Amino acid sequence: MSDNSQTVQATAAIILNGVTKAFVIEAQRVEALRGVNLRIERGSCVSITGRSGAGKSTLLHIIGTLDRPSEGTVTIGGIDVSRMSDQATSKFRNRKLGFIFQSSNLLPEFSALENVMMPGVIAGIRGHAARERAAYLLNSVGLRDRASHRPAELSGGEQQRVAIARALFMEPEVLLADEPTGNLDKGTSLAIQDLLLELAAVHKTTMILVTHDHLLAERMPSRVIMEDGRVLSATGVSQ
Q1: Domains (ranges, CATH) in the chain?
Q2: What is residue 193's predicted lDDT score, i.e. its pLDDT?
């Protein structure tokens, strides 16, 4: 690879090249993704929309190393994650990627502070340093006074704020969100949207968000629309 090519790749957070994902269901081959090419620059905030079954979540899972492509490559921060071992992939995911899902997936037996600390605990960060960072992040999402509360004592919006703080604990290069406001009422949803955009800007994090909410999608500077496993259109994102 030439020096110029290496420089070009280094400026992008994510590059997908010819990504295909196929499943076999009842002896039938089903293609969830069909040769997806995307280049997402560092610091971009990207929404992915499309009808159910268009391949949105499959694409997010592959970018998030939760699944592997059947064909093609996925490069994140200059590293081809589609060729890494399972152990290396798990370590990369913990240290470089943050996840927010429709359900907050908080551990019910732990406090908000302890839930936020979990990625650090997995990475071997414990004690005062972990608690201090978790407290800082809870404060940044407006939950300083709820640190000792368990999930059952928090509202849905508060639980999602804890999940956002947890996703940011390792200072990820890429934040991946799958319907992060899908379970929330309109007012709470707008507040979470504002928070996500604010935090992505503050932390200079690349954010990729799958949503059926077109108002939320339109708030993102870059937008991808999918149909039948392909990118139908892309705004602010190269193909």
Answers
A1: 3-105+171-235 (3.40.50.300)
A2: 92
